Amino acid sequence: MYPQPYLDYLVQFHVERDYFECHEILEEYWKSVPQEQRQVVWVGLIQIAVGLYHQRRGNMNGAKKMLTSAHSILEHHPEDIRRLGLDHAALMLLLEQRLEELNKGLSYHSMSLPILAADLREAYERACALRDVPVTRESDLNDHYLLNKHTLRDRSEVFAERARQLQLRERQRSEPGS
C-alpha cells in the first residue's frame, strides 16, 4: 500500500538518521512520477529531512528555511499526510516546536515522525526487521560522514553522467542539420 521509497525514507529517518539519504530517496521517487502527477507532500517530507540535516550541522538559517517551507506545504495537505499514515496535527506541532527551538538557538536532537496508521506501523516495522535494525535510534552526533555527507559522498557517477550528457549535447550540435 505504501511505496517502497517511502518506507526506505522512514527507515533512514528514524533509524539511520541519514537525512541526506532521505532527501535522495524521496527526490528520486518524486521525480520518477510524471510531472502532472507529482504530489507536493513528498517535497514537504524531503524538506523536513533537509532541515534536520542543516540543524544537525549547525546551519540554523538553512534549517529554519527548510522547516518553515515544509510546514507551509504540509499544513495545506492534511489528507495527503493522513493517506501516508501520519498524524497531521501532531506533525504540524512537531514542526512548530522545532522552529521555536531553532529560534531559541537550541541544538539538534533526533525527531520522529508521528506514525498514526496501524498498517504503516506494520509495514515500517517489517522494513526494519528485513534490515535487522531497531525501529528507532538516536543520531550519532560523532559520525563525521553522516553529518557531512553532502561533501564526502562518492559523486563519481554524477560527474560521469554530467560528462556523458555534455558529450551528447556537443555531438548533437556538431551534427549536420542541427
TrEMBL record:
Alphabetical list of SUPFAM superfamilies matching this protein: TTHA0068-like (SSF140663)
Pfam families referenced in this protein's UniProt entry, alphabetically: DUF309
Origin: domain of life: Bacteria
InterPro entries xref list: DUF309, TTHA0068_sf
PANTHER family linked: EXPRESSED PROTEIN
Name this protein carries in UniProt: DUF309 domain-containing protein
Higher taxonomy: Bacteria, Bacillati, Bacillota, Bacilli, Bacillales
